[in-house]
């Protein structure tokens, strides 16, 4: 079963899924796409207008959104089959906090923390084409001066949230949920602060006197991922054309894997066999998600 990741190097969320694949030790290939639209490898060859990155294909099944991608990788490449896990057991023998880690990762680092970070990009030095592309994504023109003016407020809010990490680590635990190994929670928070740390003008945020345990945790996870990457086979790059040919020729996961929940269906006014349309919750204003290829739509491309 082939795994193909559509990504680009400067995308923090691409790096997040890179790290999930590392933790789980899943062999995969990658298609490097542009940081700006258009991305014909996705829109033309797969018939998908979803514009956010990364996108992951497992066989003929295509997953968008990093939370969904992470859950799909954990389900389809389980620990019982020899893969790693992003939901490790507690260090002292208790089971994994799977549901809580999923909720935490989606609604704190991804939804609350990450939006604070992009103002620290060098907006005044970026190419106009990039600013225009992200303005279309946002659905309104980006005011570069206003972005720059928000940096102080952003640093203050990132500092307030980093204090919560410091509090969580105060008992000397190695990982955020006191797990045997790093979990999706660690990967998700690292995705924000690890990326921000690479940007200019943020040095005051990473004060070792104020946040000693947090910075130790950040360095510990960075080093841990670095060791995994050194041991991991080099990820092959393939072309969008070759990837699309492989994906369209592959088999897909049976529909009955999840099944139909009659109670939930009734709440939505649905019954088994009803045809439904799917609308993405993605906030990209210029490209609401659709599956324009009927074959891909039938094979449940997931928004």
UniProtKB/TrEMBL annotation:
Keyword Metal-binding tagged: no
Lineage: Eukaryota, Fungi, Dikarya, Basidiomycota, Agaricomycotina
Pfam family, one: GST_N_3
Protein name, as recorded: Glutathione s-transferase
UniProt KW Transferase keyword: yes
Organism encoding this protein: Mycena sanguinolenta
SUPFAM superfamilies listed in its UniProt record: GST C-terminal domain-like, Thioredoxin-like
InterPro entries noted in UniProt: DUF7962, Glutathione-S-Trfase_C_sf, Glutathione_S-Trfase_N, Thioredoxin-like_sf
GO molecular function, one term: transferase activity
Domain of life: Eukaryota
Residue span(s) of domain GST N-terminal: 1-81
Keywords: Transferase
């Amino acid at each position: 079963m082939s795994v193909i990741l559509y990504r680009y190097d400067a995308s923090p969320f691409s790096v997040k899924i890179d790290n999930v694949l590392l933790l789980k030790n899943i062999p995969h290939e990658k298609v490097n796409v542009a940081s700006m639209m258009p991305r014909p490898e996705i829109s033309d060859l797969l018939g998908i207008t979803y514009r956010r990155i990364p996108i992951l294909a497992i066989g003929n099944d295509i997953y968008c959104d990093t939370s969904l991608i992470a859950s799909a990788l954990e389900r389809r490449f389980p620990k019982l089959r020899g893969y790693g896990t992003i939901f490790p057991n507690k260090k002292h023998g208790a089971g994994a906090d799977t549901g809580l880690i999923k909720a935490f990762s989606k609604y704190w680092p991804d939804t609350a923390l990450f939006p604070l970070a992009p103002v620290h990009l060098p907006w005044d030095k970026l190419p106009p084409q990039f600013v225009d592309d992200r303005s279309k994504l946002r659905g309104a023109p980006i005011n570069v001066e206003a972005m720059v003016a928000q940096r102080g407020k952003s640093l203050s809010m990132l500092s307030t949230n980093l204090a919560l990490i410091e509090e969580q680590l105060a008992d000397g635990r190695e990982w955020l949920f006191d797990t045997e190994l790093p979990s999706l929670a660690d990967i998700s928070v690292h995705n924000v602060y690890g990326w921000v740390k690479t940007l200019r003008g943020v040095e005051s945020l990473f004060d070792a006197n104020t946040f000693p345990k947090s910075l130790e945790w950040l360095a510990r996870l960075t080093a841990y991922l670095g060791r995994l990457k050194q041991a991991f086979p080099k990820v092959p790059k393939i072309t969008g054309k070759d990837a699309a040919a492989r994906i369209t020729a592959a088999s897909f996961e049976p529909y009955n894997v999840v099944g139909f929940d009659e109670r939930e269906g009734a709440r939505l006014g649905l019954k088994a066999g009803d045809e439904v349309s799917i609308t993405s919750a993605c906030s990209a204003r210029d490209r609401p998600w659709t599956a324009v290829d009927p074959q891909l739509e039938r094979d449940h491309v997931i928004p």
